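Case study 2.
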Amino acid sequence: MFVADQELLGGGVLAETARWMIGVLRGARPRSICIPEFPDFAGRCIGSTEVRCACVESTEDQLSALCRKLSGDFCFHTSALLADQLGMAPGEEDAIDLLPQEIRDADLLVTSMFHAATLRTVAARLDKPLVVIRLNPEIIRRLQNALADGEVTVVHVDPRFPERLRLLAGAHAERIRSVLARDRRALTRLDRSHPMLISPAARDLLRDADLPPSFLDGPLISSESADELIELLIRFNLEAVRERA
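Prediction:
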């Protein structure tokens, strides 16, 4: 009766959180981690050292969105680099001295499939892990569904960003309408009856503007990529703990 009352009081969120936490703490017991010790253990796993991440992407909009997630969701100290800042021509991936300092100093490299081939060569040369981010498929599905119903307006900073979205759009890519965040006149004529996608970089530029929420919310990074990032975060932190012991 007490448990039922608690579920009624907190609703499904309370019950689901409790079930999740039970699973976590149950898994800690065989590892001789007692419940009172668990908060300190978790802190050592994610907060014992600063894990430096260099994120490489082609557009300011993608770079800003990814870096926010890497820093805010995964605790990485993230450096943002546009792909054309790498300073290498094709075939020069082995020239370490040409690489930006942020790449050389990073503990891990992050990019998307568009730059995976180049960064794999760089990561191998520097002996650093590379995570090639895959987007949450639910985000792609919702974008494609919205385009099947009509136009989607994208407010962005980098002129190249809409073309990247069109690669994800499927059959109705032509229905993506792009508006540069610096074009204040175009912003005043936005049709708010259409779904809108406003990049984080654009929101930063338009802090004083009355903008609707983006219709695409939720996790940006796929579960598989998130698992890779979390594993590396924990690995680097536990290695730091071991080195101090």
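The beta strands are 52-57, 77-82, 108-112, 130-133, 152-156, 176-180, 196-198.
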